[in-house]
Amino acid sequence: MKKSQFAVFLTIVLSVYTLVNYYIFITGLHSIPDKFTFLYSSVYLFFFLSYIAGRFLERKFLNSFSAFFVWVGSFWLGAMVYYLLFVVLIDIVRLFNLLLGIFPASFYSANCQLMFFFAVNASVILIVIAGYINAASPVIKKLNININKKAGNLRSLKIVMASDIHLGTIVNSKRTKKIVELINSQEPDLILLPGDVVDEDIEAVVKQNCGESLRALRAKFGAYAVTGNHEYIGGVEPSVSYLTEHGIIELRDKTVKIADSFYIVGREDRASKGFAGILRKPLDLLLEGIDKELPVILMDHQPVKLEEAEKNGIDLQLSGHTHHGQLWPFNFITKKIYEVSMGYKQKGSTHYYVSCGVGSWGPPIRTGNRPEIVVINLNFSG
User: Fold this and answer.
1) Among 40, 209, 269, 314, which residue has the least CB neighbours within 10 Å?
2) What is the per-residue DSSP string for 134-195?
């Protein structure tokens, strides 16, 4: 991404972030007694600046001090969503009351406003706590798919899919170890990681030595990954090199034949052009020369243009990226954007699975779904 484009993008993001925070701040300010104005303003300013400060410090001085601000700021991003929803709801109620006179005059009293202030804060804190517990508690989902092809001597193949891990300050070495243990507990034949294995800057991953946990991944046919947009945001080459050094086989517009039985096709992420000027290969070009009598499994991080896989005779496409919104009600938005926001779909003879991911991006909370590791049992019946 060009510096000028990034500057415009960053300006827009910071402007929206500031305006939303100002709206929440002003609403809260009108709900508290004047004697608490300074305290309220100071606390709010701390949370408002924490994520920005944390990300800046993380790039300059990666240590526990910067990590503290990243954690606080990340929680604030999640809390901010629900403060905004509550504030909008309150203003809608006020508007209806202004037009229809539903509530008595005491509705606008200082005591009533203070009661709303504490009620909203308590509700948001409970949502954030529940969302954090949920985000740290991935589930195992299982799926059986029949492929009407022969696969050498294989009658079946157990794939464990873990997308969108987002290794970094938030998904740290402890979380990585837990994810690896869950994957290994399923005794997979093949491990597939369809992008966003790394969150952004690889330095946080290196410092916490998350790679040692990745080395512990065990599967008969190995562990394969493709790039996601976040590998490109943080610098794709260092991320790919680190993962490769720690036992992950990266497929960047590559096709590999496994045990003379099936193929894995890995595509570069769509973000490659915007962030690195890399044009990914068309799918039909990637598939040139392969034997389509054997099963073909495709990893493509972003689940767009699903018809391409069907058109090119792919048997199974695995994607992630959407997080299925991660925070309610954003799941309704991702449902509108993507043909499949989460879960299984079949188009013709092509099977698709889009995972909501096992990690988290931004807020370390999930309120729209449970993080997941997906076990796919492929049965070959050709």
Assistant:
1) 209
2) HHT--EEEEEEEEESS-BTTBSEEEEEE-----BTTTB-HHHHHHHHHHHHHT--SEEEE-S
- What's the pLDDT tens digit per position in 267-295? 999 999 988 888 999 999 999 999 999 99
- The CA distance from 226 to 231, in Å, is 10
Residue range(s) occupied by CATH 3.60.21.10 in the chain:
139-380
Residue with tokens 């394969």: 224
Give the pLDDT confidence score for residue 3 in this predicted structure.
67
Q: Which residues does 285 contact at the CB level (< 8 Å), separation at least 6? A: none
Average of per-residue pLDDT values in the chain: 94
The pLDDT of residue 7 is 81
**What is the enclosing helix (H) or strand (E) of 258?**
strand 254-258
Distances (CA, A) of 26 to 32, 225, 260: 11, 46, 65
Q: Bridge partners of 374?
A: 141, 161
Cα angle value 331/357/227 (rounded, 5°)? 115
**Fold entry, domain 139-380:** Purple Acid Phosphatase; chain A, domain 2 (3.60.21)
Question: Whats the size of the chain, residue-wise?
Answer: 382
Rounded distance, CA 381 to CA 315, Å?
13
Rounded Cα gap, residues 298 and 352, in angstroms = 9
CA distance 274 to 233: 10
